[in-house]
From TrEMBL:
InterPro entries: Aminotransferase_I/II_large, PyrdxlP-dep_Trfase, PyrdxlP-dep_Trfase_major, PyrdxlP-dep_Trfase_small. The lineage of its organism: Bacteria, Pseudomonadati, Pseudomonadota, Betaproteobacteria, Burkholderiales. Gene3D superfamilies: Aspartate Aminotransferase, domain 1, Type I PLP-dependent aspartate aminotransferase-like (Major domain). GO terms for molecular function: transaminase activity. It comes from Caballeronia udeis. Keywords: Aminotransferase, Transferase. PANTHER family: AMINOTRANSFERASE FUNCTION, HYPOTHETICAL (EUROFUNG). This is Aspartate/methionine/tyrosine aminotransferase. Residues 45-350 form the Aminotransferase class I/classII large domain.
């Protein structure tokens, strides 16, 4: 298979470590190993004693036990740890789908949600979010998209890049549609835990539907992208068996130090999520004022969860706009062309502590050039 070039990642390959300021990152504020281990006395010594041999292919038992605490119906045997979320998506497509199958995908979205499937001979129908309704999904539209060969429905909730989070009734309608048609429901939940109002948090899909596969990772919720730890949780043991077998041709097993550090992080999930949501809430208040000040050129739909949003540029094209902002200020934004969603939007990230300072640079630029 030869998937299409991952446009977002190619863009970051050029700019992420050369741009002076990042204002489009999807991951929240990270931390040092020392800061992480400070949550747990004795963990630094434990890391020092760690043996650097192979680990168990589905993930260390200690780690899977900690991940299982995030779910109501999942135990450690229902989990496979992967090297980040990307590997898990790749494995699902190649384990559970075949050429000629059809999948419905929530869009706009992360390119691997659909490009991997297309490269594997799976046809994809986009289920488009409705911008006019704050990026809401309409479950009634699903009946117009389903086919005899449809095998899976993929959603991302909380959503990247819009920050949309379905209310419970809408989520239940999506699950009921998947159940009625016997579809795999692949639910990308890497931002779960970063709801701006914790009362709005949805259950994990795997806890409410027997054919759901929930995708989790430490990159977003915990702010630990450098650990490269993701996982899938599924009640269907056939999914676990198939994806386990396929993983033998991928990373085989995971990094022992990463798994150790991930276990520490998961034991302190509440503290890490509160740390990240506190940053997000403070930054959102600043963004509300910023977008109100520039309402003539920018349209802001306030996100409900996560660390990213998808404002619209009211005039001009986003690709040129982002290039000019980068050239004049060193501030990196992400144009919607890289997400295959027209040329009017850009992704902005607000999960990092330096966002107010970077936003001020962007603000100064708009004050000088925004009306041109």
């Amino acid at each position: 298979m030869t998937p299409s070039p991952f446009q977002l990642e190619r863009y970051f390959a050029v700019h992420e470590f050369t741009a002076r300021y990042l204002l489009c990152s999807s991951d929240p504020e990270s931390m040092s190993i020392t800061d992480l281990l400070a949550f747990e006395p004795g963990s630094m010594e434990g890391l020092g004693r760690l043996r650097l041999g192979y680990t168990e292919y589905p993930g260390a038992p200690e780690l899977r036990q900690e991940i299982a605490t995030l779910y109501k119906s999942i135990d450690m045997e229902n989990l496979i740890v992967h090297t980040g979320a990307q590997e898990a998506i790749f494995s699902f497509v190649h384990s559970m789908l075949k050429p000629g199958d059809h999948m419905i995908v929530h869009m706009p979205g992360y390119q691997s949600h659909y490009s991997i499937a297309e490269a594997a001979g799976v046809s994809v129908s986009p289920w488009l979010a409705r911008e006019s309704e704050d990026w809401a999904l309409d479950p009634d539209e699903l009946e117009t998209l389903v086919r005899a060969e449809t095998k899976a429905l993929l959603i991302c909730a909380p959503h990247n890049p819009t920050g949309y989070l379905p209310e419970r009734e809408r989520f239940d309608a999506i699950v009921e549609f998947a159940r009625r048609h016997g579809l795999w429901l692949f639910s990308d939940e890497v931002y779960r835990g970063l709801e701006h109002d914790p009362a709005a948090r949805l259950p994990a899909a795997c806890d409410v539907y027997e054919k759901a596969i929930s995708l989790g990772a430490l990159s977003k919720s915990h702010g630990l992208a450098g650990l490269r730890v993701g996982w899938v949780a599924a009640r269907d043991r056939n999914v676990i068996a198939a994806m386990s077998t396929f993983k033998d041709y991928l990373t085989i097993c995971n990094s022992a130090p990463s798994e150790y550090l991930a276990s520490v992080a998961l034991r302190h999930t509440g503290a890490l999520i509160e740390r990240n949501t506190s940053i997000v809430r403070n930054n959102l208040a600043i963004l509300d004022t910023f977008f109100a000040r520039h309402r003539e050129i920018l349209e802001w739909r306030r996100p409900s969860a996560g660390t990213v949003a998808f404002p619209r540029l009211k005039r001009g094209d986003a690709e040129r706009f982002c290039a000019e902002v980068l050239e004049h200020t060193g501030v990196l934004l992400l144009p919607s062309t890289l997400l295959e969603y027209g040329n009017e939007h850009f992704r902005i990230g607000f999960g990092r502590r330096n966002m107010p300072e970077v936003l001020q640079i962007f603000d100064n630029y708009l004050r000088e050039h925004g009306s041109k």
